[in-house]
Amino acid sequence: MTLSKAARDIWPKAYAPYSNFKVGAAIRAASGRVYVGVNVENVAYPEGTCAEAGAIAAMIAGGDTKIAEVYVIADSPDPVPPCGGCRQKLAEFAAGDVQVTMATIKGAEKTVRVSDLLPGAFGAGHMKDV
Ligand code: THU
Questions:
Q1: CB proximity list for 50: less than 8 A, separation 6 or greater
Q2: Domain spanning 3-118: which CATH class is it, in words?
Q3: 75 φ, ψ to 5°?
């Protein structure tokens, strides 16, 4: 299954009754396994979670820890870049050269690298005892 199809197929299941902005994400782990996620909003707005965070949580629960590729899709005029928090979440499990493709339901795609999204990421190496 392509990442594009996995993200597009999961997208309708997003739970976004407050923003009405559904997002789907698919991650291919280094093992080759594909994990998907959607945004899940909450009536207490800050408790909502992004599609990328859902896919990362599924990946960790599935036993994988290395991201090889990311695909994010939304019904938006332009491809939607991951939020700041998700950039840091992706950087936790993806090398800087990992490709992140942002897509729209209408078919536009834009591909960048994790290091483009988060140059100078805070990393475990910055902490003395990690
Ligand atoms: N959202 C994501 O799930 N991923 C992104 O990359 C951008 C934004 C969600 C969060 C919220 O549920 C909705 O989109 C509007 O911000």
A1: 23, 25, 39, 82, 83, 85, 86
A2: alpha beta
A3: -90, 85
For this structure, is 41 an active site residue? Answer: no
Do 68 and 98 form a contact (C-beta atoms < 8 A)?
yes
Spans of all domains in the chain: 3-118
Q: Mutation test of ligand 1: which of 50, 71, 76, 101 has the most ligand atoms closer than 8 Å to its C-beta?
A: 50
| Neighbouring-strand partners of residue 75 | none
pLDDT of 19 above 90: yes
List the structure tokens of 25: 């994400």
Could you report the per-residue pLDDT of 66-111, keeping only the tens digit for each? 999 999 999 999 999 999 999 999 999 999 999 999 999 999 999 9
Q: How far apart are CA 28 and CA 76, in angstroms?
A: 23
Q: Whose CA is nearest to atom 5 of ligand 1?
A: 82
The CA radius of gyration of the chain, in Å to the nearest whole number, is 14
The pTM (predicted TM-score) of the whole model is: 0.96
Residue type for position 102: M
